Amino acid sequence: MTNPERDRRKALRAVLRERFPRDRGQLLPALHHLQHEFGHLPDWAMEVVGWHLGIPVSEVYGAATSYSELRVQEPGERVVRVCTGLACWLSGGGDILEAMQAELGVHAGETAPDGGVTLEETPCGFLCGVAPALELNGRWTGRVTPDSARALVQGTAGT
């Protein structure tokens, strides 16, 4: 292990000791902390969390992959997330997803080869009252159409 990697692990262990008691119930808060710090959950950081909380890394990974708001792969510079929950799906969420796949040239769960954009789908964005919904870089927009979704990702919405 190189010195920068060892230093990075040591710094994370110090933060975990300070903020998160060694209790299994701290797993999700610790994973959310990693997501906030790194924008995703790096493998090495999940290993450190598992060590700190006394939880096998396989369980940490299982929890990380069970929640759609957590990502285990580094996202692109821009993240487009389409809600495909029941309300959104019935209101055209599938059409939004298809439009974004065509517009961005990637499928849901993929990052463009140049790292510019990641397309994700989520089973619920909790915006059922304004379905269908799309998130662009952490900001949700409701009542989107395929055309308005394209305008949002192209940066021309409202102009």
The overall pLDDT, averaged over residues, is: 93
Query: How do the strands line up in the largest sheet?
Result: 2-3-1-4-5
| Strand elements, count | 5
C-alpha Rg, in Å?
18 Å
Structural class given helices, strands, pairing?
alpha+beta
Q: State the shape.
A: elongated
What is the CA-CA span between the terminal residues?
Answer: 51 Å
Beta-sheet strand percentage? 5-15%
From the coordinates shown, what is the CATH architecture of the largest domain? 3-Layer(aba) Sandwich
H/I helix tally = 6
Feature tags:
five-stranded mixed beta sheet, alpha+beta, elongated, 159 residues, 2 domains
How does this structure look, described?
- It is a single chain.
- By secondary structure, this protein is of the alpha+beta class.
- The chain has two domains: 3-66, Orthogonal Bundle (Arc Repressor Mutant, subunit A), CATH 1.10.10; 78-154, Glutaredoxin, CATH 3.40.30.10.
- It has helices spanning 3-19, 27-38, 43-53, 57-66, 86-104, 146-154, and strands spanning 78-83, 110-111, 117-122, 133-136, 139-142.
- A hairpin with a 5-residue loop joins strand 2 and strand 3.
- Helix 3 (43-53) packs across helix 4 and helix 5 packs across helix 6 (146-154).
- The protein is elongated, with a radius of gyration of 18 Å.
